[in-house]
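User: I'm curious whether this sequence folds into something compact or stays loose and floppy. Could you predict its structure so I can see for myself?
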Amino acid sequence: MSNNEITTSNSTDREFSVYNPSVMQNISAIAETMANCNLIPDSLRCEMQEGKVVKEYPIQQVRANCFLIAEQANRWGLSPFGVAQHASVVRGKLMWEGKLVHSVLQALTGINLNYEYEGQGLEMKVTVTGLIKGENTSRSVSGFVKDWKSGTWGAESNWQQRLAYRGGREWTRRHMPSVMLGVYTDDEELPQRETRNVTPIVHKEASNPFTIEKKEEAEVLIEKSDNGEEEIITNIIDVKMSKGNKKDGSEYTLYKIIAEHEIGDITLATFSKTMANIAKENKGKKVSIKFERTEKVNKLVSIESTSTEEGIA
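Assistant: Here's the prediction. I'll summarize afterward.
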């Protein structure tokens, strides 16, 4: 098989396979082999600036980058070595070539998207429509070159294809957000990160089930009450569950609710099965979430469905 060949695997447990010790071991072995290969893209093994190598990463960091690629490929059901050829690291995020993501979307959703174009130049517009299994009405999104174009789009003769790639991703982010969880492509402009003097937080107790996975979520807040509770209007992306033991030996079940916003995802923790069930029932839909921010956790306070309308992208 060539490095650029991508084949579908027969994995049947991709979403949470990282929690399976045997699968974890296999992914780690793949990452080890990949890290020792000199054919992976430079951005996976080196810090790059303007296409030039600034410094090489230590081998442990290269292995970690390769592990993320192998784990993502496993969830997609693709060859990790083929997927690696379409990956790069930009501002600390894995980026994927548009053609790879576009093919993955169609393979995972089983939906054949339709594309209609109108206009020319920067005013060229695409309307993407698709019918979700079990529904009678197609869903759609539209976008213009002038709104989506980035520096990687190249000559105007290529814009129609770029609109298709971007339109397909936007359709999936809006109507099937779980498929696009954490996936960015090489033609998307990531927001510049503000330079700050930040002292890293060291979590001394690794057994603590609460963690804040992102700090950018502060920018999505739309309301803060007098009692310190904060509220956002957003989509539910996923609900994850884990079990463990407290210091006194008693068991706990922790639910992590992942919500989406255009500038980043936010993770909220709760021990409430009731609220977790509400989140599951509203997966992919717009909800109102209240939470309390503490030193180590975004603690979910309440969750309510706002309406029957479709979720935001």
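Summary: The chain has three domains: 17-92, 103-185, 216-310. The helical segments are 21-35, 42-45, 59-76, 80-84, 98-109, 145-148, 159-175, 273-281.
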